[in-house]
């Protein structure tokens, strides 16, 4: 396992480096100028030029990148151009809301995805499989923002069971906080759960046609044991990796979902920072999201290697 991890570190470092360059360049490709936003529409060119010099935006891009990435390694993400607050402080103040949303959405995604995937891949009635196929088809076609709007219409307005906007921190009031969290977490999780369910179902149906399953049946193994010990065990590996990828996608979907449900998380911070050309905040958010996705991918591959010796041995 140690050799497997060492082999993964170079690719992890390369992705982190490329991601930092992309995170730096991407916000600067958007129209507009942070100095103009800060100076206001009526500012003279001399004032704008002075602000650019004060912020260091008049330096060559490669120098700006080196200064920024050097600060990242020291744990200093800089100060927001617009709000004049440390970027780490801004992110820290919004982090709890997004972490709560992402964690609950991840739990729902894994639970629903695995349950429906096993149900669809088991030798059950056609009715159960049709229900699973219908769920997968619908939520693979519906993006998270549309899922959120439908949940607001049905469970928030038509049947006012849960609040549809705002938030209360779980640490402050767990009972009320979870009520504000359920709808956005479900909206974020269901499209990703459909991906997990479809892949697990397909993998299980493929595994049922393999020779080792026929051999187990010929030995008199019960259907439940065949599913657990042979079919599911040989199908879950790929799903583990996909779950790691889906968790990264959850962070991207959280931007839209937080806006729909008026949650004050990293998603709304990202939107406001892009609109105001607050480069340092946008850079930090992009880099953080990519690194979280890469770490989750690495963890999923570690879990896969632990489940399947062929992976960690290079087979």
Descriptors:
315 residues; MetI-like fold; mainly alpha; 77% helix
DSSP strand tally: 0
CATH architecture group name of the domain at 100-276: Orthogonal Bundle
The profile of the biggest β sheet is: none
* CATH C-level class of the domain at 100-276: Mainly Alpha
Identify the CATH homologous superfamily of the domain at 100-276.
MetI-like
How is the CATH topology of the domain at 100-276 named?
Answer: MetI-like fold
Radius of gyration: 24 Å
**Average pLDDT figure:** 81
Our estimate of the beta-strand percent is under 5%
Residues in helix, %:
over 70%
Secondary structure category: mainly alpha
User: Which regions contain 5 or more consecutive residues with pLDDT less than 50?
Assistant: none
Order of helices and strands: HHHHHHHHHHHHHH
Tally of individual helices: 14
Q: Ends: how far apart? A: 14 Å
| Global shape | globular
Pfam families: BPD_transp_1 (PF00528), BPD_transp_1_N (PF19300)
Subcellular location: Cell membrane
Membrane topology: Multi-pass membrane protein
GO cellular component, one term: plasma membrane
């Amino acid at each position: 396992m140690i050799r497997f991890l060492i082999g993964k570190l170079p690719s992890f470092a390369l992705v982190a480096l490329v991601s930092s360059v992309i995170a730096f360049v991407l916000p600067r490709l958007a129209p507009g100028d942070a100095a103009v936003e800060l100076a206001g529409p009526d500012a003279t060119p001399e004032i704008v030029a002075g602000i650019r010099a004060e912020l260091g935006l008049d330096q060559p891009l490669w120098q700006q990148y080196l200064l920024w990435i050097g600060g990242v390694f020291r744990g200093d993400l800089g100060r927001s151009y617009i709000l004049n607050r440390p970027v780490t402080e801004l992110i820290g103040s919004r982090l709890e809301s997004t972490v709560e949303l992402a964690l609950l959405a991840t739990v729902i995604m894994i639970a629903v995805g695995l349950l429906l995937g096993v149900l669809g891949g088991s030798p059950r009635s056609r009715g159960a499989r049709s229900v699973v196929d219908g769920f997968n088809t619908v939520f693979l076609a519906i993006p998270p923002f549309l899922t959120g709007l439908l949940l607001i219409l049905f469970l928030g307005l038509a049947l006012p069971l849960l609040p549809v906007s705002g938030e209360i921190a779980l640490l402050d009031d767990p009972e009320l906080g979870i009520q504000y969290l359920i709808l956005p977490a479900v909206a974020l999780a269901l499209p990703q759960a459909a991906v997990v369910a479809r892949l697990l179902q397909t993998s299980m149906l493929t595994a049922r046609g393999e020779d080792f399953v026929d051999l187990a049946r010929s030995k008199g193994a019960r259907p439940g044991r065949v599913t657990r010990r042979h079919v599911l065990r040989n199908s879950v590996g790929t799903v583990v990796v996909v779950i790691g990828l889906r968790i990264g996608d959850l962070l991207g979907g959280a931007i839209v979902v937080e806006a729909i449900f008026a949650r004050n998380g990293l998603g709304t911070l990202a939107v406001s920072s892009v609109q105001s050309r607050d480069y340092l905040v946008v850079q930090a958010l992009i880099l953080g999201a990519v690194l979280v996705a890469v770490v989750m991918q690495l963890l999923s591959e570690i879990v896969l290697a632990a489940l399947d010796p062929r992976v960690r041995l290079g087979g």
